[in-house]
Amino acid sequence: MESEPEIDNDSDAPRMSDSDSAGEYKSGDADDAGNPFNEDSDLDRIQDYESDFSQAMSLISGMERSQTMAAHNPVATEDSIHNRQLSSEEQDDFFNSVPPIIPPYPTVTLEDVLDEEFDLPGTNPNLVDEVSSSMGSEILYPSTPSMSSEHEDEDSDTHEDTVIPDLPTGLKFLEKCACQPFTIRELLSYALYDTKTSKGVSQDAMSDIEFMLRGLSDIKPYDYRTTEKRLRERTGIEPISYDCCINSCFCYADSELVPCPTCKHPRFKLDDNGKKTPYERFVYKPLTSRLRLQYANPRRAAKFIRYRKLIQLHGYVSQQKIRQENTATELASHINDGVYDWWNGELCQHLVQEKGLFDCETDIAMTFSTDGVTIFESNLPFSVWPLVLTNMNLPPSERVKEENLLLAGVIPGPKAPVNLDSFLIPLVEEFLMLEKGVAAWNGNQKTPFVLKAHIVIVSADQPAREKLMGMMGGGTYCNCFYCNSKGIHNGQVVYYPFTPPTDVPLAQLQKITAAGRNLTKYNPAELPMRSDYLHRMQATMADAQVPNSKSVQKDHGVKRLPILSRLKSIDFPRSFPIDAMHLFYANVVPDLFKHFRGRFFKASAGQQEENARNEGNNLNNGVQTVPPKLRKDKKFEATDDAYNVKPAAWAQIGKDMHASRGLIPGKFGENVRDITKCYHLFKSSEWSKFAHVYSPVYLKSHLPSNIYNAYIGLVDAMGIACDYEFMASDIQKCRNLIVKFLNIYEQEFYQLKYNRMGAMLSVFHILAHVPDCMQWNGPMRSYWQFPMERVVGVLSANVASRVDPNSNMANKILQREWLNNVLFTDINSEYIWNNTADKTLSKTLIRILVAKRDKIDLLPLLNQEPTTANRGLLKRQREPMDLLDGKKIEVQMDNTCRDCVFNLIVSEGNVIMKSQIPTTMKTWGRLYISDDVEVSSMNRKVENSTRDSTTVRYEAMGTKGQITSRYGQVIQFFTVDISGGENKFAFIKEIKIHKEGRLLYKALGEAKFVVRVECIKELVGRIICDKKEYIIASDTSLIAHFSILVTDIPHNVYVSQTT
């Protein structure tokens, strides 16, 4: 009998992909009941290889490797410094042995506060030379901070008015680094340095600027090298350099190997003097100094602790969410049922209760993210792998901002790393140290403490996750990261249906049987999940030289135990959640679009040729005609599938999308594009817009009701998973919607046919695990990969050299981290405002340094009255419902508008005469709502603006006293002084709407009336479909996901109506 074809299980080798979309996922699921093809559960096999596991462990104990089981399951020390208050003498002893905020960092154990020191790999001077000269500045490692410099001029100013907190003796390095108030000379030097590095200004141009400044002021800025030295000393950020392979295969962080173990390329090159120089270097930027520095800043430290307390101890569900789905009486019962962040998830509770982590309010949780990104393309694409960390102690809206993303380094290009673990050695070693604790200063509480930080989430796309988890990768039978379900081999590729096809060819069935496999049916709602214990056991066996290690690799898809497993906070698979960006918007939605346009099942060249011959077999007077030429593939095909949208319908959809461009506000992001012409250029953000905003409108009349409803259910599930918040009950709701979609998908798209099994890509299997990731780690937007796009933008903008881009990027990233973190160094930040001599100059300099990074909220600007020094910054701060672009003179109010104002005030229960309403008003052009969202008025002409931002959703009182949502276009904003107070109004032309299922579209008839600006709740847009204008929000076109649920919309009741 013919055996089953062998599958290449090496995840690092090229392999056939199930999808042409980037970042594809693989996975599967099981239901044992009543299935003749069912195989035994993996849990029943544990006893079969317990002895093999013991044998593997005995072999591993003799190997030279860092991933031992002792490191995977460290025992927490009983005594803790957090259980008692340190005396002043102990505090001095504690910090006297603490070196400056420069690696190597001190390790703080729980028995003794500071008993030993750990060095990061490479701090041995024999292994780490000076940072590459191409870094552009003199960077020494290690060095002791000192605010003096050999490059400073003799007339350098000194910090005469230094404001130093009362610190323990051992924290004198803070006085040198973090406690020195800024001087005007420093601010000027940093502002010039920031301009030079961020704008790419040449050194000659900067010299000319400095020359002109000297003529205008007596303050002389530091030279370039001195400025860098002071930045380095203030922040304590020192890079560490490691040799690596020129082909990005391997990093020699803890290895003395000479040739690359993968490609055998030499490690060193010899110069004319015989000196060895590495071909390439990986520059790592330690995080400990940055975390210490931020905790030393009072406001930053308070934010770290306050947010975690709010979320972890009390839970959170906004009033808005409660209003959508519950009555006011249910508020108390649901407020603690909310899932707002990772701190509310199952994994956090496990780490706290089972592993004893996060026992102190100052402990920090981090998300680690990496991915291969293409920086530029020459003859071949040049891609690098950034190592990015996100601080989970910051609110979700802040942690993903560019200035808050912590870049630990960039794995050099041009190729993807073969041995990714070797590049992660410095990161893991540092977090092993942070796991035990390092000495730090709490600027908010003015006390020393033990700073601990843990990586709790690893975010990556499917190829990167394979490397980070030590999995076999695509093309294997057990490919899923989260469960033990098995795929089916069709002779070429492994696919992952939940239900096996009913028409498997006998020959293929015999191959499957000969290989010892069965066809198993899985229930998407109940999958045979992996566990941390089993995963580590299987990985240890697969990586050891035991008789059945290859069988373990093939049966369980696990190849080795990765270096991240050394961290106590890592749990397999819960610490590796699904990335929503790649799963939803780079795979599932584009694949469904292929189905809808009839191009998912592509006809092979042989099939086309056979079809052409059949079409040409028509006889003409007994003579066979010449077969027609093979036609080119069409972008849109008409098929017999029920879900197929015909090419003519797509053509009309494309025209309607193009016609809607002027009706979508600019604040909604990228404008809509004709999908029939530009779908191949769509990015993940555009596929997200298509799924949530456009497709519910454009596909409604073209899909059968069962398929459309299942698709909308999937859209709802994606919206719940990526929402800012949800309740625990929403997880089950999301699971039900996904299972319903998967059932319809198998019935209508896959149809349980062997020749259509290609529809069951792994990405559709992994959809079933979305609710699991929500339960483990909270909302998926907390750990998706969209922030990586910002990092790509930073890296792309900073590549000024294509001759040596790796060193150029390393230098630019270091400069970025210096400038982002120097803002935290002035602990007494009020000193800038109160003690700087030149207020006018300080205003300009601080604008350059801080206003560009004002989301960091370092300076206490909001609590100050505007002064000459800070007025330029304070006017940038806007409050909700602020009116903008006001006219300086009042204008005459027409009678219609005046009548509306009078009727509105009377309807609010006020007693007033119409004569008390002024006849003049002050007009305004825009209204600031919140989160940088502004509403424009129809009377305001915006230059070069082709997108309408005048349509709003507002709330008004209905006939029965209920609050209802209505829609209209703002004609103008105006203010009127009534009874000595300013009243803000909006003059609105109402849009009557009709409901079509869960969609809203504009109807005929309109009226004009006045509302208070506080009633305006949201900016909305419109899209054209079949000559109707449908209402859309920024992230959806479905009513149930608008900010307030619309249950009944009266069409004949208006506030202060006038026709």
Properties at a glance:
5-stranded mixed β-sheet, alpha+beta, 1059 residues, disordered C terminus, disordered N terminus, 7-stranded antiparallel β-sheet, globular
| Major beta sheet summary | 7 strands, antiparallel
Mean pLDDT: 75
Shape by Cα distribution = globular
Q: Which residues sit in consecutive blocks of at least 5 with pLDDT less than 50?
A: 1-88, 90-165, 316-335, 603-631, 827-839, 853-876, 1041-1059
Sheet/helix structural class: alpha+beta
Strand content: 5-15%
The helical percent reads 25-40%
- Number of DSSP strands? 33
Structural Rg: 32 Å
**Number of contiguous helices:** 34
Distance between the termini: 85 Å
Describe what this molecule looks like in 3D.
By secondary structure, this protein is an alpha+beta fold. 33% of the residues lie in helices and 15% in strands. The protein has 34 helices and 33 strands. The strands form twelve sheets. Strands 21, 22, 25, 26, 27, 30 and 31 form a seven-stranded antiparallel sheet that branches. Strands 8, 9, 10, 11 and 14 form a five-stranded mixed sheet that branches. The chain has a three-stranded antiparallel sheet with strand order 20-23-24, with no helix packed on it. A hairpin with a 4-residue loop joins strand 12 and strand 13. Helix 5 packs antiparallel against helix 30. The chain is globular. The N and C termini lie far apart (85 Å). The N terminus and C terminus are likely disordered.
